[in-house]
Amino acid sequence: MKLGTPKAVAIGVLMILILIFALENNDEVEVEFLGWDWTMPRIVLIAGVLLVGFLAGWSLGEWRSRRNAAS
What we know:
This protein is an alpha+beta fold. The protein has one domain (about 5-70). The chain is built from two helices and two strands; from the N terminus they run αββα. The chain has helices at about 5-25, 40-70, and strands spanning about 30-35, 35-40. Strands 1-2 form a two-stranded antiparallel sheet. The longest helix has 29 residues, at about 40-70. The protein is flat, with a radius of gyration of 17 Å.
C-alpha cells in the first residue's frame, strides 16, 4: 500500500482517532473472561482488542490471497 492512497489515509486517520480515544479512556477497568477476573487500564484493553482484530484481519487476507493463488 502506497502512502497517500485513500486506503492509507483512512487507516492513518482511524489510527489517530483510536489513539485519542484510548488516551482519553485510561481509567482502570475490571475484566472478566472465562472465569478469570483482573483489573487493567482501559488503554491496555483497547490496544489488546485492536491488536487481535488487526491480526484476525491480516490472517484472513493472507488466507484469501493464498487460496486465490492456488486456484
